[in-house]
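Troubleshooting log. The previous run stalled partway through. Resubmitting the same two chains, unchanged.
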Amino acid sequence: MTVTRPGRRPGNSGSRDRILEAARELFADNGFGETTIRAIATRAEVDAALVHHFFGTKHALFVAAIALPVDPDDVLAPVRAGPVDEIGPRLAAALLGVWESPHRDAIVAVFRTVIGGGGDVGLMRTFLLDIVFDEIVPRVDHPAGTGALRVELVASQMAGLMVTRYLLRLEPLASLPADRLVAIVGPTLQRYLTGDVG
Amino acid sequence: MTVTRPGRRPGNSGSRDRILEAARELFADNGFGETTIRAIATRAEVDAALVHHFFGTKHALFVAAIALPVDPDDVLAPVRAGPVDEIGPRLAAALLGVWESPHRDAIVAVFRTVIGGGGDVGLMRTFLLDIVFDEIVPRVDHPAGTGALRVELVASQMAGLMVTRYLLRLEPLASLPADRLVAIVGPTLQRYLTGDVG
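Second attempt completed without errors. Output:
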């Protein structure tokens, strides 16, 4: 027997959607670290165990909530595995690797939606700050306190490539082989991460 | 006596709007150089003299069509006045100067609309390629054939600052004084323009 609430669709599909919606709202408003599975479950009016059942970890729930086709943890593995003085080129290669994959359209769509105002800027900010930057900032925080700015400068260069190469499709940039682009922007990223940023 | 066409609003305001609409369509489809005042007048069903009367030059019509609050010619004047080995910092300072001015909201709005899909990517491409890049590319085309890529790399860094500083408002980047930002990204732009890009 299924118990349904008035005004709610019954069944697992409705619960799953409510969890994703609640997760998007809370991650966007409060960031990743401050958002608990319990709070998401409460807002979605489900049991916390159901959230774990559907999504596993909070990290996996975030990836599902932002509708990313790949797990940032996997993408960033080669960056994590390398020395600090190679983060720039490794990061460029890792990101361009995903952007050149069959996932490109989905990623560009998320980006367009957020920038265009149809998506949630808070969610994108949480994604960048808490998921992508979080593990890199401490590694490049020299002198102390510069890490966040360094990583945001890197984000600015890579976001701009998303705009010019994939959205505006400016030629010849749009058709430049990815390895040539890594060779060109890698040193830029490396300077932002470990060079002098005033 | 005013002669009106069926289905058209009478008077100057209707003509002006039709001219702007025709201009947007033709600039987006055919680029700036290939679009004539005559063709715009024909599409708008007005006399070419009326286009000149309302907007003066084709350049001024383009600026009106894309709803830019400032004339790129004025913004780029300091870049034009300087030597090639200073284009990077001068360009960064010129663009950030406008973006930090009261025109910021209007410029960010145009950018958001185009990127989000509500505006015309073709029009933005025409604006960049034919209006902004056109005078810079020949100056940095060494070795011959590299000029367009160089300028597009510059565009990628500056577009990314638009995204991260003004749209996502990532801190501390969003609050960094403009002159410090020019000191940081200026050398990046200069390397793209006159350094080795493979």
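Takeaways: Chain A touches chain B at residues 112-113, 115-118, 121, 124-125, 128-129, 148-149, 152-153, 155-165, 167-173, 176, 180, 183-185, 187-188, 191-192, 197-198 (CB under 8 Å). The CA atoms of residues 2 and 10 of chain A lie 8 Å apart.
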